[in-house]
Amino acid sequence: KDEQRTISGQTKAILAEAKLGLKKSLGQNFLTDRHIIERIVSAIPLTEQSGVIEIGPGIGALTERLVKQAGSVVGIELDRRLLPVLHQLFATNENISFIHGDALKVDYHQLIHDYLSECKDVHVIANLPYYITSPLIIHLLEGGYPFQNIVIMIQKEVAERLMAQPHTKAYGSLTLFAQYYATVERVTHVSRNVFVPRPQVDSMVVKLTLRNVPPVQTSDQTLLFQIIRAAFQQRRKTLQNALHAQFQSQATKDQLHSWLQTSGIDGKRRGETLTLAEFAHIAKVFAEELR
Ligand code: SAM
Fold first, then answer.
1. What is the 3-state secondary structure (H, E, C) of 5-44?
2. pTM for the full model?
3. pLDDT, tens digit, for every residue of 156-165?
4. How far apart are CA 156 and CA 162, in angstroms?
5. How distant, in Å, are the alpha carbons of 54, 196, 223 from that of 229?
6. Calculated CA dihedral for residues 219, 223, 224, 226, nearest 10 degrees
7. Ligand-binding site membership of 212 (annotated)
């Protein structure tokens, strides 16, 4: 590969100089392809008034581009050993701060208040170990944070779940959860060959654009997600049976049957055939009946 395109030499040099052994447990695979970095960063329309929260900056492959384009950047890095390296790399940049912390535990309202209160729009960029992908997406979406976009690098299979259509294997509660809070678009496929060290799987970058208003109305969001999770927990069961397993202490089978009829949904269907709007119809009737 031509030198212009890749920064793997630079990445290795930084790591060697800092004498850092990489932590596999923290998913430390660093991006080294300028084109991919460019595509990820340009997925967000950044201006001088934008704030970016970068989760897991590592040794700054994406950060380097972000500081040039955004007004302010905050990097949250869990590996304490990387903070002096990051501080040194970005010593001359005034628009970046680094925080040592766990992205799953950060209070983003506080973070925005402390570091990005002047920004007009706030975005998140994350390239993280895959085992925290789903919890992180849930944490970021559920928190009610004023993010405009979340651009996240994830395992291909999770990306497929986020963008799945009904009647497919990938369609599930994560699909509907994401759909409730955001629209999801594919940004780019990322080959395992553009990382140092090389991971075991290929990745996908997706962009979640947060909605101002949910696409369905519900008086009880918790109940809506409880119904959705129940419907997919036992995917092979009919909706009627799956919901019975969840709500048996609150309703008889006959009652559930008639509630489903009232919602206009055939209880013999399987969860994977229902749209978010149909789940919302069910939640509406259940909310009234369970009151
Ligand atoms: N963004 C860099 C890049 O693209 O080259 C690094 C990506 S590397 C896959 C993931 C980074 O996230 C590592 O630097 C790791 O230490 C950090 N990390 C892992 N778990 C984290 C967590 N819970 N919160 C914040 N950072 C985390």
1. CECHHHHHHHHHHCCCCCCHHHCCCEECEHHHHHHHHCCC
2. 0.92
3. 999 999 999 9
4. 10
5. 30, 37, 10
6. 170
7. no
| Ligand 1: residue whose CA is nearest its atom 18 | 56
Q: What is the rounded distance in angstroms from the CA atom of residue 15 to the CA atom of residue 33?
A: 16
pLDDT tens digit sequence for 222-260: 999 999 999 999 888 999 999 999 999 999 999 999 999
Measured CA to CA, the distance from residue 130 to residue 136 in angstroms comes to: 10
Residue range 124-143: mean pLDDT, rounded: 93
Q: Is any atom of ligand 1 closer than 6 Å to the C-beta of 14?
A: no
Q: Which atom of ligand 1 is nearest to the CA of 199?
A: 9
Residues 6+ away with beta carbon under 8 Å from 13: none
Task: Locate 272 and state its tokens.
Answer: 């994977």
CA dist 13 and 138 (Å) reads 36
Average pLDDT across the chain, whole number: 93
- Cα of first residue to Cα of last residue in the chain, in angstroms, is 64
Q: Whose CA is nearest to atom 1 of ligand 1?
A: 57
Please, which residues bridge with residue 195 across strands?
31
Per-residue pLDDT tens digits for 101-130: 999 999 999 999 999 999 999 999 999 888
Q: How many CB atoms lie within 10 A of CB 122?
A: 23
For residue 129, how far is its CA from the centre of ligand 1 (angstroms)? 7
